[in-house]
Amino acid sequence: MAISKDRSIGFASVRTSKKMSRTINFYLKSYNITSEQWSVLRTLSEHDHISQKELSIRADKDQATLTKILDLLEKSEVIKRKVNPSDRRSFLIMITEKGKKLVEEVAPYLEEIFSKIINGIDEESLHIYLKVLQQIEDNADSLLEDVNN
């Protein structure tokens, strides 16, 4: 009997993603930040002074989740919201100096952790893995677009 794609690809992908998130969360604990918060802060460090909607797209977070994350990051004083001068109903999200320092400290640390996660995997295999992941993501996006149209 053949193993289903749901089991071999779906469950394996979800299981691996959860294990990586737990690992990253464990190592980020000492910085008082979660992997979800980190992904938003890192995105903001690359694209500062952007609207919450744009940040939502770039960080791949729905609006409700992003709002909760931004509330926590603002409370930690690593980001701040400013009324958008071109649209008073929206905010521009900015990284603070404290946030920039946190990114400078955490980014190299996480690079070390990810180096350990991919330990023993050669460059060619990693390249193929990333290419396959991108194709799976593109296919999933197409399926979602079909449903939404």
UniProtKB/TrEMBL annotation:
Which keywords does UniProt give here? DNA-binding, Transcription, Transcription regulation
GO molecular-function terms, A-Z = DNA binding; DNA-binding transcription factor activity
Give a single Pfam family match: MarR
Q: Which InterPro entries match?
A: HTH_MarR-typ, WH-like_DNA-bd_sf, WH_DNA-bd_sf
Q: Which residues form the HTH marR-type domain?
A: 1-138
PANTHER family recorded: TRANSCRIPTIONAL REGULATOR, MARR, TRANSCRIPTIONAL REPRESSOR OF EMRAB OPERON
Name under which the protein is recorded = HTH marR-type domain-containing protein
* Origin species: Heyndrickxia sporothermodurans
